[in-house]
Design brief:
Number of strands: 2
Shape: elongated
Order of helices and strands: HHEEHHHHHHHH
Structural class: mainly alpha
CATH class: Mainly Alpha
CATH topology: MetI-like fold
Strand content: under 5%
């Protein structure tokens, strides 16, 4: 429940960002630069989480940064999940040359470290929201494919699948009636944990300067900006770091709950 509350609250804040954020995220006011939390600006307006080096409100940038993180992570999970799910169940059910080709492609891709492959693709394509989604889809679909394939290999040999096949059931019916419902649970658990990983890696790429380019507010960009003044302006790094930690932990909590709810051995 704690993870669900965190996730729903973050989603609501991201959707209602123009109404929740007290200031425009890119509004520069140099007179009010590096104000600490709860400090009043030159216009007597209150900055709850302080301001950065350009006088931009930290709270407003956090709110809009949640939009970027959720858009990238959600789109990645949906697209990569569909690609990996389709490739995994087809490779596991039909096997043969198709299974061999799919698994060798996965093995080749998994030979490269996740972060190194992401850095290489971002450097090649350039930083943007669309390119980051492409990067994470390319680097994460093998996880879904391997999970789906492993589940299909177990399910296709079960007696009820053999019985349906012997009674003349065609492949589409076997897929939709017997295989897909039984592999949704493990794939959903993988998707929840992958979403948390994407949020963290997106922030890491932004910290390295390979994420969404400024002046777009992202949590990774805010961390990168705050490291310069981390001793004198601690709030610039603290609040984005807390946001990343809380959202990633919330998604992981939800993933744990989904796994427990869908595993009959835990009931």
């Amino acid at each position: 429940m704690a993870g669900l509350v965190i996730l729903l609250l973050t989603t609501a804040i991201a959707v209602l960002a123009p109404r929740v954020a007290p200031y425009p995220p890119a509004q520069v006011h140099l007179v009010d630069r590096l104000l600490p939390p709860l400090a009043a600006g030159s216009t007597t307006s209150l900055h709850l989480l302080g301001t950065d080096q350009l006088g931009r409100d930290v709270l407003s940038r956090l709110v809009y940064g949640a939009r970027v993180s959720l858009i990238i992570s959600s789109a990645t999970v949906v697209v990569a999940g569909c690609i990996g799910f389709t490739a995994g169940i087809s490779a596991g059910y039909w096997g043969g040359p198709w299974d061999l080709v799919i698994m060798r492609i996965i093995d080749l891709q998994l030979a490269f470290p996740f972060m190194l492959l992401a850095l290489a693709i971002v450097s090649l394509l350039g930083p943007s929201v669309a390119n980051l989604i492409v990067v994470f889809v390319v680097t994460s679909w093998p996880v879904y494919a391997r999970t789906a394939r492993a589940s299909v290999l177990v399910i296709r040999s079960q007696e009820y699948v053999e019985a349906a096949r012997s009674l003349g059931a065609r492949a589409p019916r076997i897929f939709l009636r017997y295989i897909v419902p039984n592999i949704v649970a493990p794939v959903a658990v993988v998707a929840s944990f992958q979403m948390a990983q994407v949020i963290i890696v997106e922030a890491a790429l932004g910290f390295l300067g390979l994420g969404v380019p400024p002046p777009t507010a992202t949590w990774g960009n805010m961390l990168a900006d705050g490291r310069v003044d981390i001793q004198g302006a601690w709030w610039l790094s603290l609040f984005p770091g807390l946001a990343i930690t809380l959202v990633a932990a919330g998604v992981n909590f939800v993933g744990d709950a989904v796994r427990d709810a869908m595993d009959p051995r835990l009931r």
